[in-house]
Amino acid sequence: MTAAGASTAGCLEGQVVVITGASTGIGAAAAEALAGAGAQLALVGRSPEKTAAVAGRLRATPFVCDFARFDQVRRLAEDLSARYERIDVLANNAGLLSRYREVTPDGHELTFQVNHLAPFLLTNLLLPRLGTGARVIQTSSRAQHLGRVDKADLEAGRRYRAFPVYGTTKLENVLFTRELQRRHGDRGLSAVAFHPGTVRTEFNRRGGAVNLLYNTPVGNLVLLTPAQGADTLVWLATSAPGRDFVPGGYYARRRPSRPARQADDLDLAAWLWERSAELVGL
Ligand SMILES: NC(=O)c1ccc[n+]([C@@H]2O[C@H](COP(=O)([O-])OP(=O)(O)OC[C@H]3O[C@@H](n4cnc5c(N)ncnc54)[C@H](OP(=O)(O)O)[C@@H]3O)[C@@H](O)[C@H]2O)c1
User: Fold this and answer.
1) 79 C-alpha to center of ligand 1: Å?
2) Span 16-280: which CATH code?
3) Assessment of whether the complete model's pTM goes beyond 0.85
């Protein structure tokens, strides 16, 4: 429905939209736009205070979940399933970049768990609620071009470099999109991934090289606002799969974009799905 610049007002009336990472940044900006589209919003954040503040402002329902804890992801899926009979849009947007290698209570490298395993688990647990016409949107990143999936070292145990590790998880977001579409496209589910641009958010909270761009006058000029960063997400949530975007695809600025070469390896996508299912205990 939404060509660039077209209004989304009311186009999601009555539809249930779940957004993770909605307590700030791109997720909160997307929530604001989708509230204007009439969506019934379920906003997921890690911080109870920040999530409640955004949800209160938008008359949305807040859910709190730390993706570094699978037990909390499972509880979130139960809570969402209990509350909503049907979920029309699931935006897997929560994500982080960790300067140093950290291990979660579940025993996984933090970036890999929060950016890939947790949304993989959440999506799988919510599949019974994601019926015909539902869409699952991954906030990936152009940083995927710095990443590489190493089957023998999925959790960067040998060598940890923050940007390539982050980029690998964003590449995994696209591989997950491909395989989700292959497995569930036939029953009318549409999976899609996108790059939001380089956006001024709290993303630099863990410090490191990103700060060099964020905290400079040049950064002020080149960084997008959260609303601009959310634009492609909002467009994917409100436009028509098959007509406006290709299910299983990867987008930037509302247009098809070239993902990293490994993202086109469908055997790798299938392998990653199976391996991830083992790791999350599905
Ligand atoms: N900013 C950019 O330039 C850029 C570029 C490309 C892709 N992206 C992607 O865009 C997405 C949103 O990022 P952003 O820029 O909006 O960053 P942000 O302002 O830091 O927001 C990140 C969101 O993810 C949540 N989150 C972080 N760690 C979490 C955890 N362990 N469990 C649950 N939620 C967690 C945060 O929750 P709390 O605030 O409640 O802790 C917050 O809501 C991410 O997937 C990121 O990789 C960003």
Assistant:
1) 22
2) 3.40.50.720
3) yes
